[in-house]
Design brief:
Elements lengths: L4 H12 L5 H9 L3 H11 L4 H14 L3 H5 L3 H7 L6 H19 L7 H4 L7 H11 L9 H9 L8 H11 L7 H12 L36 H5 L19
Bound molecules: iron/sulfur cluster (SF4).
Length: 250
């Protein structure tokens, strides 16, 4: 059965408005400024959004644009972004960024995917996010949440984020390309979490096929001990009633 993607997106847009996912603060700091989106997305790799937001806020106070970033030493950048993972490497990328953009792109952040991919520290996720959010170009940013949830829905059946991006380019109506990342990141941070997804309160539980998901076991009365258990002193080994996992690898 085909997954009702339009219905799911409409329901989630309405639902997410009521929640406060960590990604919302990060998006507010970035706005639609290409520089801020580029820098914040480089910072966000393998880092929780809360830490990325704190580091981005500190960095943007000192370096609100490319010119000001160019005046910071690598050591100063490292200090400002020390809360994010791999901050030494990321400081190196950010230190190189103004020079590369000046030399290769006349000081303007490019809007072309191939050009963006030539910038230090920029992968497909960052390039697509800059293209879509900052330049309003058709682009699908596939991160771990988009890849995972699209497979749970059975909308795609893919093994890697790149394969998911290619499948979505063929299948997902273009009107959803730019918005799908923010929506599914927020949804993945609050309801359809990587471990123990909250299917019990999910607004699309009735249309989700839950591929690869073991439903959360709700707490209930413990079963009566069997005669065997009553006569043996060994502790019972009941599973944690709240245990629930997503078993599909991402
Ligand atoms: S029903 Fe469960 S698996 Fe499906 S989208 Fe909702 S939280 Fe995720």
């Amino acid at each position: 059965m085909t997954f009702a993607i339009a219905s799911a997106i409409a329901i989630l847009e309405e639902d997410i408005r009521r929640r406060k996912p960590p990604v919302a603060d990060l998006m507010a700091i970035q706005g639609s400024d290409p520089y801020r989106i580029l820098v914040a997305t480089i910072l966000s790799a393998r880092t929780r959004d809360e830490a990325t937001t704190r580091a981005a806020r500190k960095l943007f106070q000192k370096a609100p644009d490319l010119d000001r970033l160019a005046r910071l030493s690598r050591e100063e950048i490292t200090k400002l972004i020390s809360q994010v993972g791999f901050h030494n490497s990321k400081a190196g990328y950010l230190h190189q960024l103004p020079g590369v953009i000046a030399e290769q792109f006349g000081g303007r952040i490019p809007d072309d995917l191939e050009a963006l991919l030539r910038l230090p520290g920029v992968g497909r996720k960052t390039a697509n996010l800059v293209r879509g959010i900052a330049f309003k170009q058709p682009a699908i940013c596939v991160d771990t949440h988009v890849h995972r949830i699209m497979n749970i829905w059975g909308f795609v059946a893919t093994q890697t984020p790149l394969a998911t991006e290619m499948a979505l380019r063929n299948k997902l109506p273009e009107e959803y390309w730019i918005k799908i990342n923010a929506l599914l990141v927020a949804f993945g941070q609050t309801i359809c979490t990587p471990v123990r997804p909250h299917c019990d309160v999910c607004p699309i539980v009735n249309i989700c096929p839950k591929i690869g998901v073991i439903p959360r076991q709700m707490p209930g009365p413990r079963p009566s001990p069997t005669p065997h258990e009553t006569t043996n002193a060994a502790p019972s080994c009941l599973p944690d009633p709240s245990a629930c996992v997503t078993i599909r690898p991402t």
